[in-house]
Amino acid sequence: MEAPQDIPSNFENGFKPFLKSLPDDTIVYVIYIIDSKLADAQIRSRLNIVLQAANVLIKKYLKDYIWQRDDFKLALKREDGTWLLRGRSNFGDSSADEWLIVYLIRELSKQYPDAWMRVSDTDGEFLLIEAANALPKWLNPEIAEHRVWINKGELRIIPMEKNTSSSRNLTVKQALAAISSSPSTLIHSSLIEEEAFYRIRDHPKAISETLHHSVITIPRRIAYILHEKPSYISAATEAFYLRDPIALRPLQQDSPSALTFPPTDFISTSIAFTKVGYAQLKSQEFPPPQSWQNQLPKSASAKEATGVEIGMKLSCGFEMLVSDPQNQDKKDVREIMLLLEDIESGEESLPTDKQIQTWSHQDDNDAWLDINYEDFERELAGKTAPKATKKETGPSAGFGDKSAQENLRKMVERFEAFMNDEDAGAEGINMDDMDFDDDEDDDEDEEDTDEEDKDVSFDEQEFAKMMREMMGMPPNDTSSAKELTRKVEELDSDSDDEQEVDEIRKLSERMEQELNESGALNLDPTPRKVRATKLSNGKGKEKTSEDSGEDSEDEGGEVDIDYNLAKNMLEAFKGQTGMAGPAGNLMGLMGVRMPRDEQDEDDK
Questions:
Q1: Are 367 and 395 within 8 A, CB to CB?
Q2: Which of 119, 237, 337, 581 has the most CB atoms lying inside 10 A of its own CB?
Q3: pLDDT given for residue 300 in this prediction
């Protein structure tokens, strides 16, 4: 294959272009067959068999599944003289889609022992990010690329090369060669594997739990389209959620009849949403646009009114989707327009009321959107929630859904482990020898920093003043403290006098008493460790009524520590407004992937 003729001369002279990273929210998955006994044609045939098995898995587990954006799809390719299966999917705001792909890849690997698979996303080796607390020190981001593989359902890691003073990222060829030559040397740790695959521990049962069914009121044309292919709802929901003033122009027409989906001929039916999409529709305030004014059907109850409102938002999403010129080449839009053409031509007819009554009328409880902050605080403390009443059982019990509770508990647990790291001293985190920086150091900056350090001095009086302010002690005590210090210094000059020694002892006792009253000497870490253990196990028990009287105040303090920790970390991340910042970086180092920010109702 000849090289393109339009490449600038500086590229021909050895200038390397910038490597293009993956788009945001994108996962890449690759499958290789590693068997030295197989010829090139046999490897290709073997990969076709794996591809057929992947399609069987899709039919088995994903019959009614709705993807947020791209679905799971593998294609046979040849790269660098090697046959492989490769796929790439954009999962948008739905991390559930990303982990579903991980589950499918892992299940596929269990069927074919000679198949070696790997997954990566915009963050790189995200399986290692999940297992950050269980990784050996040598395995850091600088050398992790292409070292993590899935084989026989197990997570295997290519070890660092021997007889090398430093190690870098492996290339794909080097990784495949290492697996082929010495597969027995690859590292398999059950602890790392458990952490890495933690989010798919409930699959395949959890697959169906990602959908939410709700009875809403929509035009009959949209009901027909969604009945033909329910997955169209993802594109329409995203068009509504990411709308801009230009996208809203078609909805500002005075005549509703000019719309592709006019607000007429309404019917009520159950629609399947992704949980992410349902939350996006329900959470946003959106008054009816000009073309929908006075067109909404009347509601007999608050629940029906909610269904009408969500149906209006979804209908506007469909209108914006098909009206945007940028979407005309998208597969979903082309298929929707073909369905509408069939209706206009008479080849297809809209469903009748009698037919619609035979459709599903499933209406799920959306209490998983709500958070009870008392349960939130209790979960952080690792305590068991009180027995729920009949009305509270099911999905609505507790705060959010089970996945949200597990992720929150895990975030606090990792942060505590990070803060309680015994290997970290006053100088900060002890970096491993392999945690090198790829960039050159700036010697001038280091020299300036050293000179600044030499100028630093410690003002004992100022420090004492700050400590007393933090402990809440009155300012007038400062003079007495100075007097005590003065007397101690005077007495220290003549240590032979026994009376002076007694006076020093009395002064020390007075100082100790003051510090005890302010709580400055209450440094016993035992309660904190007990609480942390309960949190990590998630099996803490409520104290009996006999102990609750004495310990309730202490327990409340322990709960507040974790509650404030989670709250402050989330608020700090929110304050970054989607950009890089210390909160996101710190949680990323601990393997916690923070969600994208959504405005609270109070902030609107």
A1: yes
A2: 237
A3: 82
The H or E element containing residue 167 is none
List, for residues 298-334, the tens digit of each pLDDT value. Answer: 888 999 999 999 999 999 999 999 999 999 999 999 9
- For 11, the enclosing helix (H) or strand (E) is helix 9-12
Residues 6+ apart with CB under 8 A from 367: 395, 396
Q: What is the DSSP letter of 266?
A: E
Question: What average pLDDT does the segment 222-236 reach?
Answer: 96
Cβ–Cβ under 8 Å, residues 241 and 247:
no
Q: What is the pTM of this model?
A: 0.64
Per the model's pLDDT, the better-predicted residue between 376 and 526 turns out to be 376
Pick from 212, 226, 586: nearest CA to 366: 212
pLDDT for position 370: 85
Residue 577 burial by Cβ neighbours in a 10 Å radius (0-12, 13-18, 19+): exposed
Beta pairing partners, 118: 30
- DSSP letters spanning 73-125: --EEEEETTEEEEEEEEE-TT-HHHHHHHHHHHHHHHHH-TTEEEEEEETTBS
CA 103 to mean position of chain CA atoms: 17
User: Cα(236)–Cα(335) distance, rounded to whole angstroms?
Assistant: 13
**503 close to 491: Cβ distance less than 8 angstroms:** yes
Peptide bond into 204 cis (omega under 30): yes
C-alpha R_g of the chain = 31
Cross-strand bridge partners of residue 149: 156
Q: Are 150 and 120 in contact (CB under 8 A)?
A: no
Q: What is the pLDDT of residues 400-411, one digit of tens each?
A: 566 666 666 666
Kindly compute the dihedral angle of the four CA atoms of residues 360, 366, 367, 370, in this order, to the nearest 10 degrees: 170
How far, in whole angstroms, is CA 218 from its chain's centroid? 33
The residues, any chain, with a CB within 8 Å of residue 569's CB and separated by 6 or more, are 411, 415, 583, 587
Cβ neighbours of 518 (radius 10 Å):
16
Distance CA 69, CA 25 (A): 10
Segments making up each domain of the chain, as ranges: 21-200, 210-364, 371-421+476-542+551-576
Cα gap 275→207, rounded to integer Å = 12
- Token pair, residue 124, equals 């790189």
Distance CA 278, CA 265 (A): 23
In angstroms, the CA 404 to CA 88 distance is: 27
DSSP assigned state of 57: H
- Alpha carbon of 504 to those of 477, 510, 516: distances in Å? 18, 10, 18
Residue 163: burial class (beta carbons within 10 Å; 0-12, 13-18, 19+): exposed
Amino acid identity at 307: G
Q: Which residues contact 101 (CB under 8 A, 6 or more apart)?
A: 27, 29, 72, 89, 91, 119
| Separation CA 409–CA 403 (nearest Å) | 10
**Buried b or exposed e, range 529-540, using 16+ CB within 10 angstroms:** eebbebbbeeeb
